[in-house]
Amino acid sequence: MQNTQEIMKRVPPTQGAMLWLLRRERDVYIETMYDLLRTDPQTPRRKQQIVAAVLSRLNKVLLEYGYEVKPGTKRRTYRLRPLPHKR
Question: Which of 46, 56, 60, 80 places its Cα 20 to 30 Å from the Cα of 8?
Answer without folding.
Answer: 46
